[in-house]
């Protein structure tokens, strides 16, 4: 059977595009590189969706305006974003939440506590895997065909349109000629050689939080043919994760949320950045890059007993010791240097009475470089705890440049039948940094746009 629309990829953006196209009357085929058990790309590991809303919406409390949302984005990206596309994503997110519910997604009641997200982020009941499974159930009801372990190897760009797609499946090469194509196959983070070309030798020490199937094959194929790109190869969503995480696919559980209540040192037992710069959902994504810049691309978190229960529990238990010196030995750090760093930090801590773990509290150090500007409490209460940190890459920002209709172009103009959605075009909006839950926003908004436009073209 020939299909009107072929969607390359099997995660959130791909599914949103496929469902939208099918509901518009198109026949749709999804080509997913991963086996069925690993379908869904990085969406399997997500937890939430950042959503603008005027007043309470679903599980979200109060309101979260377009301007506040944009200000949060501008802060983490330092203004490196396409403002028009960013506003489109933000503004469209409000209508997406009920659409998601209509397509099988269930949300948890609003969250309180250390995440500080009850107003801004809606959490999926059962996490990203449940969302992916719900969408695949809906896709089946809509008559969408899915091929797993179908790796696209080439899209033939002929003039201003994609003429055919080559993919391998079942040990054979297949060629198809759909009327419209949506690329939603993610970044290149699982290709360590490409990462190393972009970052240098340090990338060999990076861990990949997400799927091992995002190797950038389709992205490279299109860029080689002159499809316009956006973003830099060395920009990505990289966070500091537990140093004991696996090389690939560790997912969300490997993240550590303890940094705001700690000091973080490098292998020389020296602090290197303000651990209390902002609430964690707005600042966690810079720490992957910070750790990447340290010797051996590793950092070490030090906390004491009074901070242990202030953050989400870790999947691996922390190292534990009754003295700072013993903790240093367990972590392979110079004990005298760590003792000195902790003593200097403790001496710089002032009045603790305003301490508030879930909001900026101004409890700061004095006369210390780098300063800790919030949640600065002395590390004095045994037992002491430690974690190692490594750079965990979620997805890369070099991608396909799109317009407000999610359409791709060459320097000669739009490609008539090619659209992109999700992480493969997120660099259009995320020039650097990251905002918790925003990847799912981009994928949902632009997946729906791409599906709508592809179906319209096919008809």
Keywords:
459 residues, alpha/beta, FAD/NAD(P)-binding domain, Flavocytochrome C3, Chain A, domain 1, six-stranded mixed β-sheet, 21% strand, elongated, FAD-dep_OxRdtase_2_FAD-bd, oxidoreductase, FAD-dependent tricarballylate dehydrogenase TcuA, FAD-oxidoreductase_2
Task: Write structural notes for this entry.
This protein is an alpha/beta fold and 459 residues long. It has 2 domains: 291 residues, FAD/NAD(P)-binding domain (3-Layer(bba) Sandwich); 155 residues, Flavocytochrome C3, Chain A, domain 1 (Alpha-Beta Complex). It is 28% helix and 21% strand. It contains 11 helices and 19 strands. Strands 5-2-1-9-19-18 form a 6-stranded mixed β-sheet, covered by helices on one side. Strands 10, 12, 13, 14, 15 and 16 form a 6-stranded mixed β-sheet that branches. β7 and β8 form a beta hairpin. The protein is elongated and about 70 Å long. Its cofactor is FAD. InterPro entries: CobZ, FAD-dep_OxRdtase_2_FAD-bd, FAD-oxidoreductase_2, FAD/NAD-bd_sf, Succ_DH/fumarate_Rdtase_cat_sf. Keywords: FAD, Flavoprotein, Oxidoreductase. This is FAD-dependent tricarballylate dehydrogenase TcuA. It holds the Pfam family FAD_binding_2.
Blueprint (SSEs and pairs):
Blueprint: E1 5-8, H1 12-23, E2 28-32, E3 48-50, H2 66-77, H3 83-102, E4 121-123, H4 127-141, E5 145-148, E6 151-158, E7 161-169, E8 172-176, E9 180-183, H5 192-199, E10 207-208, H6 217-224, E11 229-230, E12 236-242, E13 263-265, H7 280-283, H8 287-292, E14 298-304, E15 319-321, H9 324-331, H10 335-348, E16 384-396, E17 399-400, E18 407-410, E19 413-420, H11 438-458
Parallel strand pairs: 1-2, 1-9, 2-5, 9-19, 10-16
Antiparallel strand pairs: 3-4, 6-7, 7-8, 11-17, 12-16, 13-14, 14-16, 15-16, 18-19
Helix pairs in contact: 1-4, 1-11, 2-3, 3-11, 9-10
Pfam families: FAD_binding_2
Keywords: FAD, Flavoprotein, Oxidoreductase
Cofactor: FAD
């Amino acid at each position: 059977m020939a299909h009107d629309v072929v969607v390359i990829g099997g995660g959130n953006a791909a599914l949103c595009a496929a469902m939208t196209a099918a509901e518009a009357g198109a026949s749709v085929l999804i080509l997913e590189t991963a086996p069925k058990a690993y379908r869904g790309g990085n969406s399997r590991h997500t937890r939430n969706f950042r959503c603008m809303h005027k007043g309470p919406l679903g599980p979200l409390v109060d309101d979260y305006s377009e301007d506040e949302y944009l200000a949060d984005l501008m802060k983490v990206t330092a203004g490196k974003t396409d403002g028009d596309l960013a506003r489109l994503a933000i503004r469209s997110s409000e209508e997406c939440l009920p659409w998601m519910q209509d397509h099988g997604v269930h949300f948890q009641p609003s969250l309180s506590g250390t995440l500080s997200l009850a107003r801004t982020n809606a959490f999926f009941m059962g996490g990203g895997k449940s969302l992916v499974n719900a969408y695949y159930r809906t896709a089946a009801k809509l008559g969408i065909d899915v091929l797993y372990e179908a790796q696209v190897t080439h899209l033939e760009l002929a003039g201003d349109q994609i003429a055919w797609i080559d993919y391998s499946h079942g040990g054979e090469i297949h060629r198809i000629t759909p009327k419209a194509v949506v690329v939603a196959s993610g970044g290149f983070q699982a290709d360590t050689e490409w990462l190393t070309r972009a970052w240098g030798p340090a990338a060999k020490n990076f861990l990949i939080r997400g799927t091992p199937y995002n190797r950038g094959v389709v992205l490279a194929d299109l860029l080689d043919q002159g499809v316009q790109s956006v973003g830099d190869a060395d920009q990505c969503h990289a966070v500091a994760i537990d140093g004991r995480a696996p090389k690939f696919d560790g997912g969300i559980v490997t993240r550590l949320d303890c940094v705001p209540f700690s000091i973080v040192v490098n292998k020389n037992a020296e602090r290197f950045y303000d651990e209390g710069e902002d609430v964690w959902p707005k600042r966690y994504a810079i720490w992957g890059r910070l750790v990447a810049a340290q010797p051996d691309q590793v950092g070490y978190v030090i906390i004491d007993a009074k901070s242990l229960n202030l953050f989400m529990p870790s999947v691996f238990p922390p190292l534990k010791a009754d003295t700072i010196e013993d903790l240093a030995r367990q972590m392979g750090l110079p004990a005298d240097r760590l003792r000195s760093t902790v003593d200097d930090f403790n001496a710089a801590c002032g009045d603790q009475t305003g301490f508030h773990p879930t909001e900026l509290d101004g409890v700061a150090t004095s006369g210390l470089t780098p300063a800790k500007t919030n949640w600065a409490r002395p590390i004095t209460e045994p037992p002491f705890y430690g974690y190692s940190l490594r750079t965990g890459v979620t997805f890369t920002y070099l991608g396909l440049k799109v317009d407000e209709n999610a359409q791709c172009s060459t320097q000669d103009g739009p490609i008539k039948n090619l659209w992109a959605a999700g992480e493969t075009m997120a660099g259009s909006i995320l020039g650097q940094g990251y905002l918790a839950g925003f990847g799912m926003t981009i994928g949902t908004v632009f997946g729906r746009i791409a599906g709508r436009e592809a179906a319209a073209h096919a008809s």
